[in-house]
Amino acid sequence: MKRKIYSLKMKASALALGGLILMGAFGETLHAQTLGDGIAAFSLQDYEQAHAIFLPLAENGDAEAAFRLGRMLESGYGTAPDQEAAKGWYEKAANAGHELARQKLSDLEGLQGQEANLKILEMEAAKGSPRAMIALARLYAAGNAVPLDKKKAHELLVEMCSITTSKAMIDYGRESLTRMDYEGDACR
């Protein structure tokens, strides 16, 4: 009787081990694909696989996956270019806070004029984007697309310096303020 129980335990163990081995062999089809898997497939120019990975991620709210789908559709990677479909994915990504998607969406909507770009920069600067603050400061300092307003440029650079941790941006802000004859060290 003990031999029979031992034999059954061995068979059960062997079956469990075999199941684990099979899961390992076919595990790739059992686990969820990640954004990194999609990026890797895209890098290998396996656009069909990249699309298959990005799509469910984007449908489940992954802003980066939605942005990458938009880029694939806009440029025609693995398919004919489809501006309207790209616009839809850019909108989904932009609504989730993806900054590059907002910019791409602006381009696709034909808002390439300086006035539209200025509105986007102002919106991004208001949200605390140091890059948008620098871009706006440049425009105001030169009077390009906006009235010349060195005070506004100064305010934007000082604000940018107060919120960024990037040494390069702080150095840029300090240098720009120096060129604008600002006395003091707003950019620590």
Automatic annotation (TrEMBL):
State the name under which the record lists this protein.
Sel1 repeat family protein
Q: One Pfam family for this entry, by name?
A: Sel1
Which region is the signal sequence?
1-27
Keywords of the record, alphabetical order, are:
Signal
